[in-house]
């Protein structure tokens, strides 16, 4: 008989080799695991000869089963990599599912591992949940789902068709997937969760003489449009000298200017992020594609207004009382002009935002006890059936 617990098959998850990969899934697992029996299963491919990834040595609220899968770097061995990956994943998954006998299997990021959970569903007769985090289901992105190979599209569609519940991080994410597959599945809202370090902190007070400090947090990949943010800031600084731009998370490009009010920070742990957020007045981003960025809810937890493009699920997270949403435009000069105007507007009208209201919105939507409420209700109902 299946037991009242859940196994999470996670395509992405933090490891010793990449502590930020899938950190949003880790936050979900920490929140749900504190109130429901969860076992997280992650298969981590790595190239033979490179360091073998392991689970982070930290306190978990859930059980974790972590399996590193060796892969060859040579392209002509790709079929062997495929066989090694799925063979090891299948054997390990069978062992875990026989031991735990879960009532629920929940796929997080279905890349590669999702199809295994689907194939084993008739054997173990569990209810299948799906949470996806990828922006590829938006047709505006370059690496969108419709451009992926046949195997990739077939496996993802198979997962969708066999899912009993889609626990989606946003409504727009669910609609994009539903449109791609032309099949509706039962939906529940399961937003990204704030790390507990961001919950319950006071809103920072700033003096009239303190600089207006903008913050951008990302990995600086091209779709984040960091050069446009920098150019908009430098143009505005000629008009409003007492402003700064803090850029955190990515590698500083040789093309990025130094000084001129711009400060770069390497990636930080969650506790290390707190003083960074506390010293800034507003978050600024202008991505060409996103889902539901955790940095927005984090900034809002400090009462910070947000400037962002209107891509992905961002319009579900930010309204006119919480920041400035810009229609995304593809022409670079127009992007810079729009960003500069939004940054100017925020500097001049900063006092008009209710920072306490912004913070309460974030805590009411993304703090652990609220964000997981619908999922826990569904889990408990499934277990009662």
Write a concise keyword list for the protein shown above.
globular, Rossmann fold, 19% strand, 385 residues, 7-stranded parallel sheet
Explained architecture:
With about 375 residues, the protein is α/β, with parallel strands linked by helices. It folds into 2 domains: about 5-195 and about 365-385, Glycogen Phosphorylase B (Rossmann fold, 3-Layer(aba) Sandwich), CATH 3.40.50; about 195-365, Rossmann fold (3-Layer(aba) Sandwich), CATH 3.40.50.2000. It contains 13 helices and 13 strands. The chain has helices at about 25-35, 80-100, 115-125, 150-160, 170-180, 225-235, 270-280, 295-300, 315, 330-350, 355-365, 370, 375-385; strands at about 5-10, 40-45, 65-70, 100-110, 125-130, 165-170, 185-190, 210-215, 245-250, 260-265, 280-285, 305-310, 325. The strands form 2 sheets. The chain has a 7-stranded parallel sheet, with helices on both faces. A 6-stranded parallel sheet has the order 10-9-8-11-12-13, with helices on both faces. The longest helix has 23 residues, at about 80-100.
